[in-house]
Design goal:
The chain is of the alpha/beta class. The chain has two domains: 139 residues, Aspartate Aminotransferase, domain 1; 254 residues, Aspartate Aminotransferase, domain 2, CATH 3.40.640. It is built from 14 helices and 17 strands. The strands form five sheets. Strands 4-10-9-8-7-5-6 form a seven-stranded mixed beta sheet, sandwiched between helices. The protein has a four-stranded antiparallel beta sheet with strand order 13-14-17-16, covered by helices on one side. Strands 1-2 form a two-stranded antiparallel ribbon. β13 and β14 form a beta hairpin. It is globular and about 75 Å long. It starts with 8 loop residues before the first helix and ends with a helix. The mean pLDDT is 96.
């Protein structure tokens, strides 16, 4: 429940100790949250408290610390379940990252449902982590990976999407929000069209979860994955939501402790529910941190977060558009707070290095989206990604630092 009547960005910035730091003697302008977001005190305290006061390995322990640690760890799972509106905690699997979550589905579901001559449908907006695992599966079984094209604005071609859904399509795996250019895909519509042909859908929600409320039952997603560190939680924690009826049919992804029912040298039987896919000691404290991060953003409220970030996106797009030699890559109808751009005859790495001296942190490169870069015929871009703690002063600092680059290369 949102208990903030006014979105106070300066108060929110005060929750993040990193903004007390000076970079090259300058105020920190952090515009790289799309790669990894900063951490609020609420998360730092939850992690430290877990290590200092309640740490022990989870499950099966009868002593106090193990029981307390298990309570906090499983409490985080319930927090995630509630946040996504999943039907059961058994539909929430903790992984180390989005990448591991996608690999889990690609290998486990792929082993069960994808064979020679089948097709896996992706899009040109995908991060490498939602391309390479499917290619590995396809190469192993003789399937084919296909990609839905986009237009020059970065919007998915929905008519081509429908055409590419065939009897050979065994799964659609598509991003909710493009990490490179910010396109927000109409995933509810895409899922419905796939389901009309009995095709399951995996949604990569890594860039969506920090910016919008996600209801997996409303979307009717079969699988939804995201990573904790982009939503102000620690690194080393990811989430796979999967519909219970699919998870029940899927074979284990990894073997080891905690995912078993009984082990003999002749045969092993496996645990049910989420335990089947969580082999070994899990990311206990990271999950606790994720629970604290989700509580933090829910306390602020996603409607307010989205409105604030969209105002920053609009302002940044407007101000960057006033500069000479700037080409904004991706201007989809629906965008998250990401601005990706190039400058004529100036390499993005040079831009990033120069503006770093002004304390401005952006991401430069292909953003693990090389097929998308190829589509736009650019090797890389500069990406400024905004979060709830950014303000107009950050946009102004970015624009002024870009003017420095223009002056340097004049």
């Amino acid at each position: 429940m949102n208990d903030m009547t006014v979105f106070d960005v300066e108060k929110i910035r005060g929750d993040f100790p990193i903004f007390e730091e000076k970079i090259h003697g300058k105020r920190l302008t952090f515009l790289d949250s799309g790669a990894s977001a900063q951490k609020p005190v609420a998360v730092l305290d939850a992690v430290q408290d877990a290590y200092r006061h309640t740490y022990a390995n989870v499950h099966r322990g009868v002593h106090y610390l193990s029981q307390k640690s298990t309570e906090l760890y499983e409490g985080a799972r319930e927090t995630v379940r509630d946040h996504l509106n999943a039907a059961s905690v058994d539909e929430i699997i903790f992984t180390k990252s989005t990448t591991e979550a996608i690999n889990l589905v690609a290998n486990s579901f792929g082993q069960m449902a994808i064979g020679e001559g089948d097709e896996i449908l992706l899009s040109y907006l995908e991060h490498h982590s939602n391309i390479v695992p499917w290619q590995l599966v396809a190469e192993r079984v003789g399937a084919t990976v296909k990609a839905v094209p986009i237009d020059t604005n970065g919007d998915l071609l929905r008519d081509r999407y429908e055409e590419m859904l065939t009897d050979r399509t065994k799964i659609v795996a598509i991003t909710h929000v493009s990490n490179a250019i910010g396109t927000v895909n109409p995933v509810k519509e895409l899922i419905a069209k796939a389901h009309s042909k009995d095709i399951p859908v995996l949604i990569d929600g890594s860039q969506a979860i920090p910016h919008m409320k996600v209801d997996v039952r409303d979307l009717d997603a079969d699988f939804y994955v995201f990573t904790g560190h982009k939503v102000f939680a620690p690194t080393g924690i990811g989430v796979l939501f999967g519909k219970a009826e699919l998870l029940e049919k899927m074979p284990p992804y990894q073997g080891g402790g905690d995912m078993i029912n009984r082990v003999t040298f002749e045969k092993t039987t496996f645990a049910t529910g989420h335990s089947k896919f969580e082999a070994g000691t899990p990311p206990i404290v990271q999950a606790i941190g994720l629970g604290a991060a989700i509580d933090y953003v829910n306390k602020i409220g996603f409607d307010q977060i989205a409105a604030h970030e969209q105002s920053l996106l609009s302002y940044a797009t407007q101000e960057l558009g006033k500069l000479n030699n700037i080409r904004i890559i991706g201007q989809a109808k629906q965008k998250a707070a990401i601005v990706s751009f190039t400058m004529d005859d100036i390499h993005p790495h040079d831009i990033g290095t120069i503006i770093d001296q002004a304390g401005v942190a952006v991401r430069v490169g292909h953003h693990c989206a090389q097929p998308l870069m190829d589509f736009y015929d650019v090797p890389s871009t500069v990406r400024a990604s905004f979060a709830l703690y950014n303000n107009k002063e950050d946009v102004d600092a970015l624009v002024e630092s870009i003017k420095m680059v223009q002056e340097f290369f004049r």
